[in-house]
Write a structure and sequence with these properties.
With 161 residues, this protein is an alpha+beta fold. The protein has helices at residues 5-40, 85-93, 102-108, 156-159; strands at residues 47-49, 57-61, 66-69, 75-77, 96-99, 116-122, 129-135, 140-143, 149-152. 35% of the residues lie in helices and 25% in strands. It has a nine-stranded antiparallel beta sheet, with helices on one face.
Length: 161
């Protein structure tokens, strides 16, 4: 079977389209999977994350304690703590809070007297995220990784060893 000039043009066009599809398909597939994963980790409306959830914590420095991941993948703790170090790190990684606007923060300013800082070091990042923490009577006021102030209502022993 012999193809005419028009037939060969069609073969070349279809071949070029198949080549482009074969080159682009893995990237399109990856994008679809990644967007499906991001949809599954949606943060409820009105809440903000304290720490980025897409990075791996490898060290946390509390005012009275330090927790670090060693080469074998186990958590090392300076002093004994009542909860597993991996559980404590997971708690911090998953913390969500209500964003506080500037007006509310200005109203709370006289009560913000004793700040604490928690350093969170992530794998592959040179500088830590420094979380400023204020203990209030009914909640914690913390500055998250995006420099937004959020209120978190949890018990003290849930956050600090």
């Amino acid at each position: 079977m012999r193809l005419s000039r028009r037939g060969w043009n069609n073969v070349i066009i279809i071949g070029a389209l198949l080549f482009i599809a074969a080159v682009q398909l893995p990237e399109l597939w990856r994008d679809r999977l990644q967007s499906a994963q991001n949809d599954a980790i949606e943060v409820p409306a009105g809440l903000e994350r304290l720490l980025p959830d897409n990075l791996t914590i490898d060290r946390m420095v509390f005012p009275q304690q330090e927790i670090a991941l060693n080469e074998s993948g186990e958590w090392q703790v300076e002093n004994p703590i009542p909860v597993a170090a991996s559980e404590l790190v997971s708690r911090w990684q998953q913390l969500l809070g209500t964003q506080i606007d500037e007006q509310t923060r200005d109203l709370l300013k006289p009560q913000l007297t004793h700040p604490q800082t928690v350093e969170v070091w992530f794998d592959g990042i040179e500088e830590p995220v420094r979380v400023t923490v204020y203990e209030m009577p009914q909640f914690w006021l913390m500055q998250n990784w995006q420099a937004e102030w959020i209120a978190i209502s949890v018990e003290k022993n849930y956050l600090f060893p």
